[in-house]
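[SOLVED] Need 3D model of a two-part complex

Original post:
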Amino acid sequence: MKEKKEKQEETTQIIVFKLGEEEFGVNILQVREIEKLDQGITRVPRAPHFVEGIINLRGEIIPIVDLRARFGLTLPELGLNSRVIIVEVGEALVGMLVDAVEEVLRIPVSAIEPAPTITKGVDSYFLAGVAKIDERLVVLLNLERTLSPEEEKELNEAELG
Amino acid sequence: MEVSQYLNVFMDECQEHLQTLNQSLLALEQDPENTEILNSIFRAAHTLKGASATMGFNKMSNVTHELEDVLSLLRQNELQVSAELVNVLFEALDLLEVLAQGIAEGREEDVEITGVIQNLQKFGNKERKAGPTQTEERRKTLQLRYLPAEIEHIKEMASTGLTLNHLHVYLQEDCLLKGARAFMILRELEAHGDVVRTIPTSKELEDEQFENEFIIGILSKKPLDFLVRFLEKMLDVAKVEGETISPEALLVERRGVQTNANTNGDPDHQKTSYTKAPSNVSPTVRVDIRKLDDLMNLVGELVITRSRLEQLSSEKGDQIMEETVEQLSRLTMDLRDQVLKTRMVPVDHVFSRFPRLVRDLARETGKEIQLQITGAETELDRTVIDEIVDPMVHIIRNCVDHGIETPEERNALGKPNPGTVELNAYQAGNNVVIEISDDGAGLKLDKIRAKALERGVVSAEELENMDEEEISNLIFLPGFSTSEKVTDISGRGVGMDVVKTQITNLGGIVQLQSVEGEGTKFTIRLPLTLAIIQTLIVQLGNDVFAIPSTLIDQTISVAKKDIKLLRNREVTFHRGEVIPLIRLQEFLEVQEAKNMALDELDVVVVSNGERRIGFVVDTLLRQQDVVIKSLGAYLGNIPGIAGATILGNGKIALILDLRSVA
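Solution:
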């Protein structure tokens, strides 16, 4: 069947971004927009450690999650290429702080495989799978889990393990 | 039919009708003879029946159907309003509320309805005969009415020499198979003329849905005498009364009126029920509350942009521009006020459910209580209205349970019966005040003192220094209940502290005044709206924060040398009072702050009604109205932070909730 209908094979589009040198991806349907970080982030005292703060997105208050802190990765400071990817999770908008946004990729669904237990230092709990495109390996995020405020416990366990 | 899109509309209407039913039933209990009230109850039940049947909510439609049956008997005077009946009706109403709740949660099917249905049927069927159903009275209720088309037909026939006769047939009491007998009579009669109509309808006659009598309207060439004698000769017929009717005297049947005998009351009765539209209701549009929220947000944005524009124009110094901006400002504020108003709902929304509550509580406790409501038209933001119900219910329960004495006690004390619970609402500036008072026993201060000591909520020393009002307000402390007997109305030991928390969460204040032997008065003070609040903007390090003005007692300036250490904590003395100080940066657990290095400190004194605490900031900036924005599920539950707002320069300021410390 794959041979027969190569052209009509089901595909999906992802936005590829970088945390450090590693490539990650999110389904484009969940992405609302991509923002530069020129307005600065307002810190929120006592917020969970992976919440960098909040920003004003045309009158809406959006929490910003630092994915590196979320995944427990140690990485250099944010640079000029840093962006905020605004995604929709459930009914809420959440911004994800990333080191750079690379490109939009159309990939066949068949290229997505389940993620191993730990991929590039990230627990598979947060992952929707791994996409192998030619030589590249893009780690696809499960946004519901990655950005859920209620998963602190699992997160801590993930960090310990 | 795609049900979900209509569900909201249905639920809204459902709530409205249930409310009408509730109010009208209470009124009916007081005034059983009032047909207008009865009609409004009937209409509400009827509409609910139709709506729930259309939506496929079978249980609700079953219950409303039975309810309607009982109500229609009431309308025909075949049933009398009795205490027992009213209770059954209230029971049915409560069940409908449970069903509505069930429908909203998608589990209507789980609700048990048989008990209530049986009770309704008891009145709907069996007791029908128990009413004043003497023949004389019933005869009046049996009246033949005709559709306009039928009347035309009769008039036409009259011109050809036919006359219309009404034959009122009474069957013998011991007649068996009444239905079959009626059918025979009709068939025999067809030989002598054209039966236009019967009451009850021929189908109902066949189904035996009638007592012992019916009326036949027949167009015939035969004289009336002949027809009467013809029928009198038939088996089981006890008596026949005949009457020739001129076509001009015919009663018209209105569309929408049920045609069976059971609902044909006297003509006036029907007039009131079908031609009288709801009277004092102005035309309205139903709008999703979320749309209003969006509108409110947009206006909030506009207010912010306006501030920015004001700033720019004042920097430019162009006079024409400044004037234009000023005008824009006024328009913006007017727009804001109007939008706020659209979100306002009269407190009647909440108050209207209390007569029922008080009635039920009075019955449960065997007390005589009248409820007086004033200021029900006072308006409050929708969001506040929804939250105020629970605390008010609790307070009213307390008034009834602990406040008002039993009739015997009141008589002994020379107090009037029934006792009075009063609800009063009015607007005072940017607040709405709700007062709940009773003329009952009042709080027994000695008991409160003893309990407070026993529970260890205050020390004997502290108690010494308290005035009566302060002692009364001790009942708002957690775990405090002075009721000697635990009833299921109140006195569970949870209560007043919860009431206080709920009201404080709304940005409101609750106070209590009580005179032993004379009564108690609760005063609730609420902000008009939760969407826009007045704040004091303060600076700390590089960030600005907004502190709601409602929390602020005063702002003071304290010299560094006036700060003392008491048990290792910073305090200052202000007008003879010790005020503990907290550095805002410590409370917020942030690093940057300049106030440690300052010689004169700006202190915001916050009060939660009991204690006062001074928060040390870097600088006081200004007072400002701000639009509250929620931080969402992510950050919504951080203690000390109530939300955020966007300032004129586009920067975000967090809104602090400092009560959690105080």
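Edit: Residues 367 and 406 of chain B are 5 Å apart (CA to CA).
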